[in-house]
Amino acid sequence: MSTTKLPEVWLRGPLPDFNPWVQPAAHALLQAQEEIQAMASSFPDVLLWEKPAGLASVGFHLQHLTGVLDRLFTYAKGESLSEIQLQALKSEGKCPQEPCSTTQLVEAFSAQVGRALEQLKKTDEQQLLAKRSVGRAQLPSTGLGLYFHAAEHTMRHVGQLLVTIRFLLDKQPA
Description:
By secondary structure, this protein is mostly helical. The chain has a single domain, classed as dinb family like domain (Four Helix Bundle (Hemerythrin (Met), subunit A)). The chain is 54% helix and 5% strand. It has five helices and two strands. It has helices at residues 23-40, 58-76, 83-90, 102-122, 143-170; strands at residues 131-134, 139-142. The chain has a two-stranded antiparallel ribbon with strand order 1-2. α1 (23-40) packs antiparallel against α4 and α1 packs parallel to α5. It is globular and about 55 Å long. The relative contact order is 0.19. The mean pLDDT is 91. InterPro entries: DinB-like (IPR024775), DinB/YfiT-like (IPR034660).
């Protein structure tokens, strides 16, 4: 039986029901979701909080990916962060409950990608260039800028996550 590897998400054509202006962000989020599910879904829980060479753990990256999408998409709606979101930010890098598994963190990221994609679908094109404020300093951006940064930031962390996973798995005894 042969398995055909699909091209990257952006090379599979337009996504139905997405405005062309947000297609690149949607493609990037779907690509991140696929890569994380392929690489992290079987990652051993015992290594989840390991920090090779003092770098961020797999658990941190999975939490951060979920949290940053939530935060940036909140700003894109023109809203401020809630107390729950601020608490989640403070707890990134720590196991929030016992047991805390890779599967739970991957599922949380996938659910957040689903919410982000729904928001992208519903985004009114007229709001993409609307001014948005980011963070406590109320730094200037736009809806489109936030969506682009969410996609770019996500892919940056996916790269770091995949390298960390590979490193930790390669150093395990055979």
